[in-house]
């Protein structure tokens, strides 16, 4: 999350190294920013076995678990839909974009706040207020080409929407296969196959389905969450014994080798979601995970991350806070001088900004203000 906030703030800077940002769609390359979101999807996959097991320990059956998965998915898709459409909000509007955005974030907080007593009259009233506000904002939505809820398009669903689709697919796959390692590996191979299919005109009969459900169109993003789920299975069943490290090494080598060996076919590109990009990012995520397991489980170094811990315990809150800040900037004309937004000074500014967002998240968390879906 810290790195995601950092790279998302790079648009405010000038004269910074190109490798920090996103590579262009037509370029066979990958920058730091092109790896952050895949790593996040990998972590989503890591959480799935734990989340489903936690539900089972609470006594929930499959129907209850699926219902929970669907509600979480709906929440993420809703947030993603509104946030991605906010990018093209404008034209002859009743509400200026900064006002519309601030009201939108307020509605999301009211609906999905982690209320201490979620069934109390106060909590229900606040949730209903948030839903009403969200519906009103949809009616007041304006673009250059359309008005109202009908003008909202899925586009690419936004970061949260894509997380929602991947969470839904990988969770259901895990649930249906009962978390069997062999089945998860087969599913991973299927997603990689779907990712490669368009480049060889395979499965053309699925074009209608692929055009309607973007995330299934290429299989790249579910590949990342599935690799995360497989990694979690290995971690849970093997512990930190030698065979665990060996399994991670083999999986990383296979994915990395595939990505590099097939690079000449489709290139490495996040924008085009190529198989090389997906598998290389998955391999790098495994390597990073192994490093942190070694650091925390083997070396017992756990105090270093306390500074950024709120970004993990209140992740959704942390992700939405910058939207508030950027919206508030719409009310003022002041901008930092170019000197403070350039080169090394600018990068330091963005890093400090990311740490500030995490600090604010921590303060809100202490006041029991955090989102939960």
Explained architecture:
- By secondary structure, the protein is mostly helical.
- Helix content is 66%, strand content 0%.
- The chain has 16 helices and no strands.
- The protein has helices at 2-8, 33-57, 62-86, 97-112, 121-139, 158-176, 181-196, 207-212, 214-218, 220-238, 242-261, 263-266, 275-298, 310-313, 315-329, 343-366.
- Helix 1 (2-8) crosses helix 16, helix 6 crosses helix 10 and helix 10 (220-238) packs parallel to helix 13.
- The longest helix is centred in the N-terminal third of the chain and has 25 residues, at 33-57.
- The radius of gyration is 21 Å and the shape is globular.
- The relative contact order is 0.15.
- Please give the largest β-sheet: none
How many DSSP helices?
16
The number of distinct β-strands equals 0
Mean pLDDT: 92
How helix-rich are the residues, as a percent range? 55-70%
Task: Give the secondary structure arrangement, pairings included.
Layout: H1 2-8, H2 33-57, H3 62-86, H4 97-112, H5 121-139, H6 158-176, H7 181-196, H8 207-212, H9 214-218, H10 220-238, H11 242-261, H12 263-266, H13 275-298, H14 310-313, H15 315-329, H16 343-366
Descriptive tags:
16 helices, 66% helix
Task: Provide a short characterization of the protein structure.
Helix 1 packs across helix 16. The chain has helices spanning 2-8, 33-57, 62-86, 97-112, 121-139, 158-176, 181-196, 207-212, 214-218, 220-238, 242-261, 263-266, 275-298, 310-313, 315-329, 343-366.
């Amino acid at each position: 999350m810290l790195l995601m906030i950092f790279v998302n703030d790079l648009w405010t800077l000038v004269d910074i190294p190109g490798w920090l940002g996103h590579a262009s769609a037509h370029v066979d390359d990958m920058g730091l920013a092109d790896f952050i979101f895949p790593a996040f999807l990998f972590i989503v996959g890591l959480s799935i076995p734990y989340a489903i097991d936690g539900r089972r320990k609470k006594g929930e059956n499959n129907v209850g678990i699926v219902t929970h998965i669907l509600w979480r998915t709906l929440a993420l898709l809703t947030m993603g839909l509104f946030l991605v459409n906010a990018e093209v909000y404008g034209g002859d509007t009743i509400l200026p974009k900064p006002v519309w955005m601030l009201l939108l974030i307020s509605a999301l907080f009211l609906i999905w706040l982690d209320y201490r007593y979620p069934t109390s009259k106060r909590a229900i009233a606040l949730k209903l207020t948030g839903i009403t506000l969200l519906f009103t904002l949809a009616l007041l939505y304006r673009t250059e080409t359309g008005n109202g809820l009908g003008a909202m398009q899925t586009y690419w669903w936004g970061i949260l929407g894509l997380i929602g689709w991947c969470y839904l697919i990988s969770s259901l796959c895990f649930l249906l296969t009962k978390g069997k390692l062999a089945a998860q590996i087969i599913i991973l191979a299927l997603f990689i196959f779907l990712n490669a299919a368009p480049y060889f005109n395979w499965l053309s009969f699925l074009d209608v389905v692929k055009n309607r459900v973007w995330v299934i169109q290429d299989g790249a993003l579910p590949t990342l969450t599935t690799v995360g789920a497989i990694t979690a299975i290995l971690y849970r069943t093997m512990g930190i014994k030698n065979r665990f490290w060996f399994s991670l090494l083999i999986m990383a080598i296979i994915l990395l080798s595939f990505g590099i060996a097939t690079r000449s076919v489709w290139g490495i590109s996040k924008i085009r979601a190529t198989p090389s990009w997906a598998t290389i990012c998955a391999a790098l995520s495994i390597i990073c995970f192994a490093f942190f397991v070694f650091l925390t489980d083997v070396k017992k170094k756990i105090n270093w991350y306390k500074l950024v811990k709120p970004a993990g315990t209140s992740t959704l809150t942390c992700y939405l806070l910058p939207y508030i800040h950027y919206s508030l900037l719409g009310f003022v004309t002041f901008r930092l001088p170019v000197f403070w937004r350039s080169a090394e000074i600018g990068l330091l500014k963005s890093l400090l900004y990311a740490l500030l967002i995490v600090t604010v998240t921590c303060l809100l968390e202490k006041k029991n203000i955090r989102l939960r879906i």
